């Protein structure tokens, strides 16, 4: 059972969550918005890179790998992603309300979205930590459940983050190199299969 391939595919979808912040921006959105977005994106780029790297690492776990090895790699990736989303929530929280009449709401939505994602990836790590590695079939079944849950997390995350790529602030973020850099990240390759 090539469950790791399913996990990889779902995490590729997770990378799309990051790309929501780097959607094509519009024209000028104002100097204050641009300055706010630059401050956020300059800090956020490190976290985006961590999420991308963790997704790539997960995709490189061979589908026929030893259960203990697969479990450890998956758990580490989920932990890294969860921590990065926590940091992103902190970055947006510390940045203060974005300039403009809807700035406070935008900030609140961003913090809520990243906090929720962090919690969901932490839950995926817990599920992975509880996988039984002594029985390959039980492990495969459990990993299949984690994969299904990951697909749900990715879909819900896309909905949460959709609003962050819209409007004046979404456009201001999209213009910043720290947020655009995510769009240049290679999509994780499919894991080796037996």
Summarize the model shown.
The protein is mainly alpha-helical and 194 residues long. It has helices at 3-19, 31-59, 67-95, 103-129, 136-162, 167-174, 177-180. The model is unreliable at 22-29 and 181-194 (pLDDT under 50).
Notes on the protein architecture:
The protein is mainly alpha-helical and 194 residues long. It has one domain (3-19, 29-59, 67-183). 73% of the residues lie in helices and 0% in strands. The chain has 7 helices and no strands. It has helices at residues 3-19, 31-59, 67-95, 103-129, 136-162, 167-174, 177-180. α2 packs across α6. 44% of the residues are buried.
Name the descriptors.
single chain, 194 residues, mainly alpha, 73% helix, elongated
């Amino acid at each position: 059972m090539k469950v790791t391939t399913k996990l990889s595919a779902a995490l590729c979808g997770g990378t799309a969550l990051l790309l929501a912040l780097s959607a094509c921006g519009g024209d000028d959105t104002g100097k204050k918005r641009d300055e706010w977005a630059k401050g956020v994106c300059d800090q956020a780029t490190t976290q985006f890179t961590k999420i991308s790297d963790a997704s790539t690492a997960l995709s490189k776990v061979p589908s026929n790998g030893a259960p203990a090895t697969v479990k450890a790699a998956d758990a580490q990736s989920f932990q890294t992603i969860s921590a990065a989303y926590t940091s992103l929530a902190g970055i947006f929280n510390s940045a203060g309300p974005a300039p403009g009449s809807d700035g406070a709401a935008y900030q609140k939505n961003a913090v809520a979205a990243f906090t929720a994602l962090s919690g969901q990836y932490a839950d995926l790590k817990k599920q992975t930590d509880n996988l039984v590695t002594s029985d390959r079939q039980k492990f495969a079944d459990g990993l299949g459940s984690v994969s299904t849950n990951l697909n749900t997390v990715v879909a819900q995350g896309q909905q949460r983050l959709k609003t962050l790529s819209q409007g004046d602030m979404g456009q201001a973020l999209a213009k910043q190199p720290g947020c655009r850099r995510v769009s240049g990240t290679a999509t994780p390759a499919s894991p080796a299969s037996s």
